[in-house]
Amino acid sequence: MTEPSARPLAPASPPTPLAPPARLASRRLSRRVLLGGAASAALVAAVPARAYARPAAPSYPPLDTKALQAAIDDLEHPRATGAQLRVGGRGGRWYGTSGVADLRSGRAIRTGDQVRAGSISKAYIATAVLQLVGERRLVLEAPVQRYLPDLLPAEYPEIRLSHLLNHTSGLPDESGPDVPDVSTPELILAHRYDRFTPSRLVARVTRTKRMKFDPGTKQEYRGINFVLLAMVVERVTGRSYGAEIRRRIARPLGLTGTYAPASDDPYLHGPHVHGYQEMSDGRLEDATVFNQSAAYGSGEMVSTTRDVETFLAALFAGELLPPHLLEHMFTLPPPEVRMVDGTPARYSAGLQTVTVNGVTLWGKTGERYGYHSGAFGTLDRRLRLVWSYTPVRRDAEQGRMAERIAAALTS
Q1: d(CA 149, CA 154)
Q2: Mean pLDDT of the residues in the chain
Q3: I need a labelling partner for 9 at 20 to 30 A (CA). Which of 34, 69, 227, 396 fits?
Q4: Is 71 helix (H, G, I), strand (E, B) or coil?
């Protein structure tokens, strides 16, 4: 279903677009890597990094609202209970939903319903960090050890804030008895009320005294990088990172459904979409009430698709960061820095990039149990897309709806 007023709009006379800085890098990447699931490699080819100053404008197809609705109407691939998609930008606007927000009541999804945004949280954290750099309260190339002394082992080399932002820190994997076993859906829900402190999350990493690789030499996507960044924000401001995001981003932009929950709060507050987990016997259990403190700083935020699109639009328009700092969010590491599996680096400071059918998108995906969300846009601000759906299993299938959405918008 769509909002009554939702329809493609004729492109308006655009304001001057944000000029892509000369040091930006664009990368064509597999949709499977960024959007999840078993993507078809025929749609996107991986190519080496290249610097670009002003890429040729891609050819955007007109919004095909029937294809967009069909992309979210398939609630079997992956199995999901509901979905919503919001498209914006100068190329037109559209909003649609499918399924329900709550299996018990059968209520339809509404545009202001809250969802667990998962790792989209990292884009907000990165923005706050870069704002603090602009205020000269942080130094991007300074080691995190300067701001959090005695937290990391003395054996570790200096890890710059920039290494944390683009996942090139080389920090070890989590280990120890307090890493919960979530190998079955029953175990997942058995740990739904577990509560973690940031220092406890760091301790799960620092039990290992040897780094996985030297900082800045490889890229590996890790939540612990943003745990440390959130701790830095709190150390230099004297306020929780959630309070800083509210003060710096949510309040100025009017994001009334966006917040970071308290560490002891497993609930969503206000109208929301329920997330579910499929049990081993096929039953669906409501997983909406779930303590998110294990994702402190890296994925615990709550938002709405409307709020996320507002944030993305403001970020890309340069309303939250000046050009020299915004540039970091659209800059990949040098070509010689590759993912640990040998594929090209694909993460910038808080964002990630993907090229689908010749259209290069920047943004972030996010997952929590029962929720899969994403927010991407083009640098020329002609296209933005924000989705959130509720897959009942976390497996290779869960990204297939995102793949359909991207294909419908770019082919």
Answers
A1: 10
A2: 88
A3: 34
A4: helix
